[in-house]
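Lecture 7 notes: from sequence to structure.
We start with the chain below.
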Amino acid sequence: MSAATSNAVPVAMTRCAAYARQAVERATGEILDACGWQPAAGSRVLVKPNLLKASPLACTHPEVTRAACAWLLDRGVQVIVADSPGFGTARGVAEAIGLASALADLGLAVRGMGEPVPVALPDGGSWGVSRLALECDALLSVPRVKAHAQMRVTLAVKNLFGCVCGLRKAVAHTVQGNTPGVFETCVAALWQALPPVAGLADGITAMHVTGPSGGKPFQLGLLAASPCAVALDAAVYAVLGVMPSDIPVWRALIRRGAPGAFAENIRYPLQTPQDVPAKGFILPETLADVSFRPHRLAWSVCRRIWRSLRP
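Predicted structure tokens for the same chain:
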């Protein structure tokens, strides 16, 4: 093995056809073991699924999140499961999609992302990022592989935007999304500001055509894991046959020199991107505006206030 190969970031991929619990647990354990991620016993790991809204296809499948948590608990890790949904509350979304019940026998409950702490951004602004995310020892980003109308694909790094607390995400879209290229640069900066981020991608049933919600299911049959969320994303991009020029967040990570963003820095201990057929996976040709215009921000504020007043 050459020095370059031995220093490469591992991304472990395997095929998994459905969400049957035993199959998902077996495949998840296989790739987490093979990728070499070894959080220390007693460490605090924040498991961050994508809980966008109370719509199952828009969220990480509960069995994948559960399998990741079980693997961590078996290694003596202190597990926290949390997110800041775009619509609704973390607890409400978790109950609606079956995640709350899936985690119950593990003694885990889903938490919201609270206690915002300002994190400085390259544009001179800041995002209010949850103290949970900033003060854990490591994060495991567990996205569903999805098309995205604004980012073309959303994976482990973009999933970290859910560490921004509540309504602050909509404000970020309005402020940092107002200038082309700034929002994705800030997402890349958020990844760098957090504790080490590993990734586990749920691509068993992906979402294509559009997203992050409202797309169509696509049976990709893939689970993938890496100790580096950036490398995981680059590997899944390779599966989908896209280039850095196609993906705003990928371009931003390359500009920051993130090692995992470069194909030559990745190795595959199990299957390779060429082993995963993705023919027919459709991505948006034209990207929508990242910015939330003032009327959309106002609507988001009103909706959240209304939800908070409901019994």
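Points to note: DSSP finds twelve helices and 13 strands in the chain. Confidence is low (pLDDT under 50) at residues 295-302, 304-311.
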